[in-house]
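Need a sequence for this fold. Nothing fancy.
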């Protein structure tokens, strides 16, 4: 069989490219190399600003021309680096050679020897990954999560007073409202989103084994730890002063575990919405021209939630692998992290794809309140909890002589369907005060929702 023309192997780069394209600017190989050039250039500027080793500070025009190396990074640089790495067999060294080459073009040969000065590859890499992951998470992934949270909040407000039968263990239980149940997911996601937003994206810049040895040998009178701190923090990321050759990746482990946690909550959301659709609590809004089944014309399948569910499982598995691998490095350095970190974009890509499907899916459902009402009407026995609790209060207040209200209601309702008239007759015969009896007679499954509507107003930052 003849070979196909070149094709993307990953569906993220093929079928789903449009949904995850925002991540490629940061977490692709080209995005990583652009960040590496940024780190190399900014380190050159810092060294010359300090007039180290006989250099002079660059003019503002000179700095702008130098910064254009990463600000205008494009296909020419991508191709140049690919050709050079084929020779060097070392990605960061290829970046160093690119910067040196461009310095010659800019007439800045005089500072060429300060390119990659006293750096190990991991100084550049740790800063580059901190930059790219920070930008990808805060500028692309987190806004998409916050969009889903906002949609959940809107739906929660819309359905705050929509009573429905709860199902604990899959069985009829004390009623709630659809708005309150959706607000629970928003609440949970808000908490994790705040943790992600507070991530300390760290880098090291302390040389081959984290000791600044080469730096001190070249110029012992410079406070290299403080200069490195100022440089890294000047890039907008945090500084880790105590490391081996690599930055220890603990911040990445924490971040990926938090994103995986968010994915677990989103997975729970997807399966719950899928179940509500299967119960006909939500109807799916037909999309013009769409096909649900290749053979059953009537079907509208909950594919958005199923797609989200599957992609969250893939993302969660990859994120768990990232966290499990990156936490360990043998002695002062091994390369297990190198190939592992190249999959950060894949892990976030599947999560982003899931968020896209959830956002679209939540916009394509409509609450079927008559179905919820019929379900409530058919399950009058859920009022048993309210009745036995009121009876207990009446006993405590000295207004009832009933000995075991729980057993009384259990005998009436367990494993049985009890109609509204039967429930009313039972309440009328109870040994309780008139006010309590009137409250119970007025209660229906539709109105037995407690504070569900008010709970929709809770926000995590107000807790």
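Here you go.
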């Amino acid at each position: 069989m003849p070979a196909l023309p070149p094709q993307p192997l990953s569906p993220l780069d093929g079928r789903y490219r449009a949904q995850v394209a925002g991540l490629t600017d940061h977490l692709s190989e080209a995005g990583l190399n652009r960040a590496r050039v940024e780190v190399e250039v900014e380190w050159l500027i810092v060294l010359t600003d300090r007039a180290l080793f006989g250099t002079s500070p660059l003019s503002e025009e000179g700095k702008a021309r130098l910064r254009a190396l990463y600000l205008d990074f494009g296909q020419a640089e991508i191709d140049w680096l690919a050709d050079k790495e084929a020779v060097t067999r070392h990605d960061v060294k290829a970046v160093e050679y690119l910067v040196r080459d461009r310095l010659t073009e800019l007439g800045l040969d005089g500072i060429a020897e300060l390119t990659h000065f006293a750096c190990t590859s991991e100084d550049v890499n740790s800063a580059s990954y901190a930059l790219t992951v920070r930008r990808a998470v805060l500028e692309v992934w987190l806004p998409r999560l916050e969009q889903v949270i906002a949609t959940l909040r809107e739906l929660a407000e819309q359905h705050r007073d929509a009573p429905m039968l709860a199902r604990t263990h899959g069985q009829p239980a004390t009623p709630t409202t659809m708005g309150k149940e959706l607000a629970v997911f928003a609440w949970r996601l808000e908490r994790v989103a705040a943790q992600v937003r507070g991530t300390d994206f760290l880098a090291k810049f302390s040389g081959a084994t984290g000791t600044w040895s080469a730096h001190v040998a070249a110029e012992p009178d410079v406070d290299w730890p403080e200069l490195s701190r100022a440089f890294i923090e000047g890039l907008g990321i945090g500084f880790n002063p105590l490391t081996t050759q690599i930055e220890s990746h603990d911040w990445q482990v924490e971040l990926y575990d938090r994103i995986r946690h968010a994915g677990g909550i989103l997975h729970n959301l997807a399966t719950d919405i899928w179940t509500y659709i299967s119960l006909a609590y939500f109807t799916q809004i037909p999309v013009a021209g769409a096909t649900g089944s290749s053979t059953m014309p009537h079907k509208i399948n909950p594919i958005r939630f199923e797609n989200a569910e599957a992609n969250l499982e893939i993302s969660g598995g990859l994120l768990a692998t990232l966290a499990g691998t990156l936490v360990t490095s043998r002695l002062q350095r091994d390369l297990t992290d190198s190939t592992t970190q190249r999959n950060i974009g894949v892990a976030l890509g599947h999560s982003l794809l899931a968020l896209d499907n959830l956002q679209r899916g939540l916009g394509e459902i409509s609450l079927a309140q008559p179905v919820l009402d019929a379900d409530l009407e058919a399950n009058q026995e859920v009022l048993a909890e309210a009745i036995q609790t009121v009876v207990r209060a009446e006993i405590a207040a000295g207004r009832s002589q009933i000995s075991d209200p729980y057993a009384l209601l259990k005998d009436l309702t367990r494993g049985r369907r009890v109609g509204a008239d039967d429930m009313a007759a039972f309440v009328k015969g109870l040994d309780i005060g008139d006010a309590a009896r009137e409250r119970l007679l007025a209660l229906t499954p539709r109105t037995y929702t407690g504070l569900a509507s008010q709970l929709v107003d809770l926000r995590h930052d107000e807790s």
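For context: The chain has a mean pLDDT of 94.
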